[in-house]
Amino acid sequence: MIKLIVGNKGAGKTKTLISMVNDAVKTSKGNVVCVEKGNTLTYDVNHQARLIDIDHYAVSGFDAFYGFFCGLFAGNYDITEVFVDATFKVGGRDFNAFAGMIEKLVKLLDENGATMTFTVSCDKSELPESVCKYII
Fold it and tell me: Which terminus of the chain has fewer CB atoms gathered within 10 Å of its CB, N or C?
């Protein structure tokens, strides 16, 4: 399952994500992963969540981002939830490429039974229609 937290800068997306990560750590029967750009969430996210700084892996573009997620799931079958902050800072502002990655991730997540939540910094009207059904 995919969830998108959408809003312009300053809308509180990251605070919502942090709350969701910390709640997931309390209730998940598997591993919770939080992917961020930089080390900004270190003190906000519960230490039981696996916090990954995407900058350490030189990921850029949505194809590389998708490959990174495939590697996460290939290396750990116990992941139940993945949270991603600053999605467009990693993948770029190509909304159609983002939609393509989401389509591929839906199949990957169905196979693994996991949930992914992304913060998406834009207006809802800018996103392709195919991803709007994932907005929470």
Answer: C
List Cα–Cα distances, 116 to 17, 36, in angstroms: 11, 13
Give the predicted TM-score (pTM) of the model. Answer: 0.96
Give the residue among 62, 79, 70 at the shortest CA–CA distance from 114: 79
- Cβ density class 70-100: b for 16+ within 10 Å, e for less: eebbeeeeebbbbbbbbbbbbbeeeeebbbb
Are 27 and 46 in contact by the 8 Å Cβ rule? The answer is no
pLDDT in tens, 40-89: 999 999 999 999 999 999 999 999 999 999 999 999 999 999 999 999 99
- Number of Cβ within 10 Å of residue 120's Cβ equals 22
